[in-house]
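Database export, one record per block. Field names are fixed; values are copied verbatim from the stored entry.
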Amino acid sequence: MASGQYITKLHVSTTKDEEEILGAQGYEFINANLNQGAGGNQVLLWHKKECGNRPVTRIQFSFSNSMKSGLAEAGYELVNRDLNAGVCGDHIFLWYFYGSTEFDIPIVNLQVTADAEEEPALLQDGWERLGCDLNRNAAGNFIYLWVKREKLSCICELTASVDFDSDKHLFELGYTRVDEDANRGAGGNYVFLWYRRTTDKSKALTALNISTSLQEEAKLQAEGFKKLSINLNKGTSGKDVYAWHKKEGCESQIRAMLLLINSKAWNEYQKAGSNFVEKNLNDGNNGWIIYLAYK
């Protein structure tokens, strides 16, 4: 693909004046208000595709100050515009990165969804949903950014974190953070899942699962799954919850992994034939009900 087809810059507008300035600078906008359903400012995402410039390979979001330092230290570019401008939700900022590891695959297109019914078709068509609800805690629609990459890719590695100390290192190793707290609303540690992508199908993960008891752990172990050592319920009064993955087989490479917090999405993904792991990541506590899905 010609280099002029890659996304090379990103920006955000939160006012009419900013929209006019970015348009005059050659940016193109995605016709979706990132504040939809929440009131507040009209917030638009803008991008450029410039021949000869480096392609954007990763996009992340921060919704707390603690999430910012690892991104900055790893060399991510901050777009200093609050995606929840004018509303009382979390202060959400977009960050992007020009990566050169084997796990960095150029982004060629962007799309935004504001309805769970739209999501499974994009997943089926090779799009990758990024983890952060861009209306987080603002009471509007569940808004997600989706990316299309230059080449078809699969998830090859999975890890997790329970603090922010390892963020810089994981970003430098080519990991993408799923920007949703797996402990959301439960009062424990900030817990994040992370993944790396590959264009080599032979290295792809082929199945994911969740355990919430020793019996389930024993069953998954017997089925050849490998366990992530981090309790996804760390710091809460809930059950011990672990993520598991497998690389056996070559017919079902995992192309995308999602944490589903929108109850309307649960049935939509199941109806579309996505793999839906019906184990609540906040089992045993009062946090949000969160399910894992993958395709």
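Remark 1: Helices lie at 16-24, 68-73, 119-124, 167-172, 214-222, 263-271.
Remark 2: The chain has two domains: 1-151, 154-295.
End of record.
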